[in-house]
Every structure is written in C-alpha cells, then in structure tokens.
Amino acid sequence: MLSLTDRRPVFHAVDLAKIYQMGEVQVHALRGVSLELYEGEFVVLLGASGSGKSTLLNILGGLDSPSSGTVHYLDEELTNSDSTTLTRFRRDNVGFVFQFYNLIPSLTAKENVELITEIAESPMDPLEALDLVGLKDRADHFPAQLSGGEQQRVAIARAIAKNPKVLLCDEPTGALDVETGVIVLQAIAKINQKLGTTTAVITHNSEIAKMADRVISLSDGQIAGVHVNATKITASELRW
C-alpha cells in the first residue's frame, strides 16, 4: 500500500486566510493555513468550535472563497474561479454531508438519492448507494419513517451516489447519540475503503480521530498539529 506522501495530492492549499467583517470588527476565521489532502485518505479535521474547521472545509469544497491564499484541486486552481466554475466543480467532484440531513420530506429515501443521480455525470444506481450504507431495504420509506441515524445514512448515500472523488463531512454525528453515531461513521469509513474516496471529517471529538489515516488539528484559525495514525481503529472500537 502506498504511503500518504506517495499518493497524488487531491487538494493543495497554500497560506489560506479568511476574514469576515462583522460590523466594525474583523473576524479571522483562518490565518495562513497550508495543507494537502491525498488521494484515498481518511483525514479528520479536529478542533474546538470556532477553530476554523468548517471555514476550511467550505473553501476546499468550493462553497466559500478565501480572503487570500490559493487552493488547487488536482491541476485546477479554485481560488479565483467564478460561481459557474465552482458549481460545476462541486457537482462533478464533491459529496457533502452535514450535521443536519436536509432530506426532502415528501420523497422516499430512494427518491432523495435520485435527485443527485439525475444531475451527475456518471452516477451509481440509487439502490446501490443505499446498499453501501445498509439501507437498501428502507428505500421506499419517507424521512419521517426513518430514525435520525437512518436519515443521516440516506444523506451519505445521496452524497456518494454521484461517485464523487471527495467526500466532505461536517460534524456528521453531531445530532446523533453515540450508538447511532458509530453506525454512521462505519458507513463513512466503508465508502472510503470500498470506493477509495478521499474523505475529510470535521469533528471536535478526539475519539473519532482514531479512525483516520491522518489528523489535522486546528486552533484559532491555524493548524496546531498534524498526526499520522500508525494503527487505525474501526468505528465499533470507539469509546466515547
């Protein structure tokens, strides 16, 4: 198996800064962040609330732009891309999973996943995506008929159904109890292993970091440390 540094960098970010103007006050969400995310790796972005994790993930995913610095996805520079280019980048390359599921209540699990496959270039079958997260038998159920953990797994299926090269997850277990959170993390890890999808998970839970190939810790908008896990654990081995 290739070491991380022998793999192709998927993202290459240099000296990213992000400043929000809040009235007369400037909020520095990122302060000179440089990093690379590699093909097929499972990385955890770890840090307290307000450390800059979500801002960094949003910039990598093309949902936001830095105030300064550069970010490349493979050979494409995203930093100065217009909204049309960023929309195409997100559509073709990135799957997003957020803390809240954002499913459409009037559609079944399968229909929620189909929304993505209809606009993707080379999507997988919606039932295949649901099967990867263990919910093929719940395909015809509406969100109100599903538990919170099942709804989150439908959201993961929706994110990966377009066969994205990158899966970005922002506190995917934040609204779940421990047992359900483990099931959701198992689904995310399975996607990473089975499809080779570069996966980044934001969390403030240091236990979840033990699942990662690499842990990038953020504090006050800066990278506070990078740790490579010599021995990863599975989600079922977590002790929260």
Give descriptors for this structure:
240 residues, alpha/beta, Rossmann fold, 6 helices, 28% helix
Would you give an account of this structure?
The protein has 240 residues and is of the alpha/beta class. The protein has a single domain, classed as Rossmann fold. Helices cover 28% and strands 29% of the residues. Strands 6-7-8-3-9-10 form a 6-stranded mixed beta sheet, with helices on both faces. Strands 2-1-4-5 form a 4-stranded antiparallel beta sheet, with helices on one face. β7 (166-170), α6 and β8 (198-203) form a beta-alpha-beta unit. The longest helix is centred in the C-terminal third of the chain and has 18 residues, at 178-195.
Level-2 CATH architecture: 3-Layer(aba) Sandwich
Going by CATH, the homologous superfamily would be P-loop containing nucleotide triphosphate hydrolases
Query: Which geometry do the CA atoms define?
Result: globular
Q: Alpha-carbon distance between the termini?
A: 30 Å
At the fold tier of CATH, the topology name is: Rossmann fold
Please report the number of helical segments. Answer: 6
What is the total domain count? 1
Q: Give the helix level as a range of percent.
A: 25-40%
**What is the alpha-carbon Rg in Å?**
17 Å
Total number of β-strand segments?
10
Taking pLDDT < 50 over at least 5 consecutive residues as the criterion, the unreliable ranges are none
**Structural class of the secondary elements?**
alpha/beta
Provide the succession of SSEs: EEEHEEHEHHHEHEEE
The first-level CATH class is given as: Alpha Beta
Mean pLDDT: 93
Question: Order of strands across the widest beta sheet?
Answer: 6-7-8-3-9-10
Percent range for β-strand residues: 25-35%
Taking the sheet with the most strands, its summary is: 6 strands, mixed
